[in-house]
Amino acid sequence: MSSFPRRQAATRRFTLGAPRRPTVSPDGGRVVFLRSRAGDDPVTCLWLLDVASGEEHLLVDPLTLDVPGEEDLPPEERARRERVREQSGGVVEYALDAAARLAVFVLSGRAFTVELVPGAQPAPLPVDGPVVDPRPDPTGARVAFVRDGTLHVHELSTGTTHVLAGPADDDGPGVTWGLAEFVAAEEMNRYRGYWWSPDGSQLAVARVDDAPVERWWIADPAHPDRAPVETAYPAAGTANADVTLALVDLDGTRVPVDLGEGTEYLAAVAWDVHDLLVTVSTRDQRRVDLRRVDPDSGESTLLVSETDDVWVDLVPGVSAHLGDGVLVRCAELDDTRRLLVGDEAVTPRGLQVRGVADVDGDTVLFTASERPEDVTLWAWSRQGGAARVGPQYGVWAGRRAGGVTVLAGGDLDADGTRTWVRTAEGRTVGVTSHAESPGLQPAVRRVATDAGGPSVAVVLPTGHVPGSRRLPVLLDPYGGPHAQRVLATRGMFLTSQWFADQGFAVVVADGRGTPGRGPAYERAVWGDLAGPVLDDQVAALHAAAEQVGDLDLDRVGIRGWSFGGYLAALAVLRRPDVFHAAVAGAPVTDWRLYDTHYTERYLGHPDQHPDAYARSSITEDPGAQSPARPLMLVHGLADDNVVAAHTLRLSSSLLAAGHPHTVLPLSGVTHMTPQEVVAENLLLLQVAFLRDALG
After folding, report:
1. Which element (helix H / strand E) includes 626?
2. Among 360, 357, 339, 358, which residue's Cα sits nearest to residue 349?
3. Do residues 365 and 379 lie in contact, with contact meaning Cβ atoms separated by under 8 Å?
4. Is residue 291 within 8 Å of 269, Cβ to Cβ?
5. Sign of the CA dihedral with 431 first, then 437, 442, and 443 last
6. Average per-residue pLDDT in the chain?
7. Are strands 287-293 and 385-388 parallel, antiparallel or unpaired?
8. 3-class SS at 170?
9. How many Å is the maximal CA-CA distance in the chain?
């Protein structure tokens, strides 16, 4: 049997072969989903589940279609996959008409349609490529798509294609229609740039002009014969892309949309039979407006304006409407993110709403946390109020339509993701998973901390006998906003358990700034992404040592990627009295080099809050503390999210300070590390480095 690192890399962290991205048809009779044929197969297929019979039907197998390889993906699609952290190939995204009878998808830049009935054959869309983000209109009569920054519409009945919206003659080369700009996709979870009207007669289309955005150049020094890739990157304090919205009729007539005064970000667009709603925010994100747009005139009316002295969060899935048109949204009340129907809060204080999955008639399906380590599925209706749907513990998500609910997730008691369908009558239908078993059973022990302290878990070597030996300690955090590591699911602790089995006591902690604990806990990092975050990791380490035992505090290492990499480097540079070695992967070392939307939310504009950037960055005088601790910096040279300049600037500062360190550059690697050999060997190299450094 191959090693755990190799199997984890080959299976994309044991996610291949598991059902994902389900959609329920409006009548509740069918579920469309993606799944590869095996746990080590990266080619994703499109499947159909008949709810009544429980039968699964393969609709699209990419290997049977005449398409070129994945290397022929257009740049826009490669960028989209990087933003959503997509590591598979094949059919990785699809779009449906309103009745869920037609699916449209893209393979290697070619668009296809397929009827959602067993035995249907995919048909190529007879248009020139490469095609990006094809979507059918709600009636299923036509398909829109983007090519070369221009939005096109193809009529299925006649086979004709025409340009609907594209750059004008006096526009510069940075103008696109129908695509999301970088910060929308990377930070706002908005991956698209156009939206069909409910009757298919109009589209709301985003026009993006990235001419104001600074140009960066991502080069691969291992291949000096290749030209650097030009990237429009809006670093903190610099200009964003100019984003506007227009209503476009099928004949190309355009009407500009009023997005309100003082707004900079187009965060979301939702268009249903009741209203066209847009969510916009100011640059400092202290005000988020929900506006209703008149589809004829483009004029808008302010419905709700949320303000906060620090920032207003964007909540996935809202705003939306019940079947009768009543508005569904979220608001922060009593240090709780709560679900609002109309103006009434319908979820209790202390239940932190994470996002809205679907609205089905008068039922709202959403995820929420009673405890930060559990993210469970809930439903609210006028008849039954708010009630949990499915398991009480673990991490769960779902979809709902036609009274049928899909539940998917896992917990600490079983491997992988489990998926099933529950009908309105209470009947359940399982959805097959081909995911491989990791062969590890993480033994996760929770550690209690004081009220308001971090969430902490400890993982010890398999079979460790208490008192038998003192263990070197490895902290394994992410630690930053948006993400958690202490979640009640096995998948979050597989790598930690593997490190533990190499002889470490692994401590995982979510401190201030991480979600699931309420707005005040998340906002505790405003103006300082270093101090509170690092203090909480130290507190977690000491709590673990007191309650678990056998932790050798004279041998403490820390590892992480992205924000976790920043935290790892921060730890050995600012607290060498606590941390004795670190592996920092893709670290953000100078926050002036990270994007506007994320960075300015937490640190403000650098011209207005220079002290916040000085407190939070680690490139300035990194060798001030002593003694110098072993530090390995790892960075993908093709990373366009956290660019390699972060690591290179820190390395230069460390060299100037006489601080020994190791730099591992990864040629051709982005912010993800999907390459099997790279992902495997990174784990092995980290273990070797930490063993050597900690003795």
Report:
1. none
2. 339
3. yes
4. no
5. positive
6. 95
7. unpaired
8. coil
9. 77
Are 566 and 618 a contacting pair, CB within 8 Å? yes
Angle between helices 494-501 and 676-694 (to 10 degrees): 50
Look at residue 632 and give its three-state secondary structure.
strand
Non-local CB neighbours of 687 within 8 Å, separated by 6+ positions:
499, 502
Q: What pLDDT is stored for residue 83 in this prediction?
A: 83
pLDDT tens by residue, 239-271: 999 999 999 999 999 999 999 999 999 999 999
Long-range CB contacts (within 8 A, 24+) of 114-123:
114/46, 114/59, 114/60, 116/25, 116/30, 116/32, 116/48, 116/59, 117/48, 118/48, 118/50, 118/55, 118/57, 119/57, 120/59, 122/59, 122/60, 122/65
Token pair recorded at residue 669: 């690697």
Q: Which of 608, 625, 612, 504 is nearest to 569 (CA)?
A: 625
The order of strands in the sheet holding 161-165 is: 132-136, 142-147, 150-155, 161-165
State both tokens at 403.
């009274």
Using the structure block, give the residue that is written with the tokens 């004029």: 299
Whole-number pLDDT of residue 1: 58
Count other C-beta atoms under 10 Å from residue 91's C-beta. Answer: 27
Distance set, CA 121 to CA 114, 128, 171 (Å): 6, 20, 41
> In which element (H, E) is residue 600 found?
helix 596-603
- pLDDT tens per residue, range 137-171: 999 999 999 999 999 999 999 999 999 999 887 78
- Looking at this protein, which amino acid is placed at residue 286? R
8-state DSSP, 674: -
User: Which tokens belong to 290?
Assistant: 């929900």
Q: How many Å apart are CA 512 and CA 41, to the nearest integer?
A: 38
* In contact, 477 and 569? CB cutoff 8 Å: no
CA-based radius of gyration for the chain: 25
d(CA 312, CA 328): 17
pTM over 0.70: yes
Cβ–Cβ contacts within 10 Å for residue 655, how many?
13
The answer to whether the beta carbons of residues 379 and 364 sit under 8 Å apart is yes
pLDDT per position as a tens digit, 575-620 = 999 999 999 999 999 999 999 999 999 999 999 999 999 999 999 8
> Which are the contacts of 513, defined by CB distance < 8 A and separation ≥ 6?
479, 480, 481, 521, 522, 524, 525, 529, 532, 533, 602
With H, G, I as helix, E, B as strand and everything else as coil, classify residue 573. Answer: helix
For 326-373, write each residue's pLDDT tens digit: 999 999 999 999 999 999 999 999 999 999 999 999 999 999 999 999
CB 296 within 8 A of CB 302: no
User: How many residues are recorded in the chain?
Assistant: 695
Cis, peptide link before residue 319, omega less than 30° from 0: yes
120: three-class secondary structure by DSSP: coil
Q: Of 375, 343, 571, 357, nearest to 455 (Cα)? A: 375
| Contacts for 110 with CB less than 8 Å, ≥ 6 apart | 67, 124, 125, 129, 130, 131
pLDDT tens for each residue of 444-502: 999 998 888 999 999 999 999 998 999 999 999 999 999 999 999 999 999 999 999 99
In our burial notation (b when 16+ CB lie closer than 10 A, e otherwise), range 581-601 reads: bbbbbbbbbbbbbbbbbbbbb
Q: For residue range 617-637, what is the model confidence (pLDDT) as tens digits?
A: 999 877 666 678 999 999 999
Going by C-beta distance under 8 Å and a sequence separation of 6 or more, which residues neighbour residue 690? 472, 474, 504, 557, 559, 581, 583
The 3-state DSSP class for residue 129 equals coil
